[in-house]
Fold this protein.
Amino acid sequence: MKLNQKGLLIVLSGPSGVGKATVRKALFKSPDHKFAYSVSMTTRRPRVGEVDGVDYLFVTEEEFEQRIKDGKLLEFTRFVGNYYGTPLDQVQKLINRGAEVVLEIEVEGAMQVKAKMPDAVLIFIAPPSYDALKKRLLNRGTESEEVILERLEKAHRELTLAAGYDYIVINDDVDNAADRIKAIIRAEHARCRRSLNGYLRLLEETDHE
């Protein structure tokens, strides 16, 4: 019998350009975890190479705002003229199946998740330095200089919010960052508040043998 049969909600968050998607993809290569990625929803247009339903769920602004009104989003934010959010039903379904559900979202969204689901594990992905973050954003080459400057200003504010997270993982090396996150997940599964009920049931079964 497993001590904790319920799934775990893991939130990977941090400034734009810090490498959240790269770390998440490295994490999912692990054969010893039952990871499930909850695809975010957005109203922005797909970038070159992005696939609907894989990278994002691309919807219209009208569709997104209807989901807000219906309370069908776990979290959402608006940035650079576009909405980003997480479908609530998708997350709940995966957790009930016992999956380790990973959200890759903005800092503002992470705080909303913590308020609605206190058991969520918030992990702040941080850059090795502010200069390294700036270089990553410039090297992407997918946005105008104006948008990059806006992202850098936002990143500076977000770096000061790391204290509101459960853990901070510096993305100095992608594989090292993924290994640190896996260690965090293993530790979280063993927490008493997650495993105590299962442990007590195990003792009861032993008593009846």
In short: The two ends are 15 Å apart (CA to CA). The chain has a mean pLDDT of 86. The CA atoms of residues 123 and 167 lie 5 Å apart. The domain at 8-38+98-207 is CATH 3.40.50.300 (Rossmann fold).
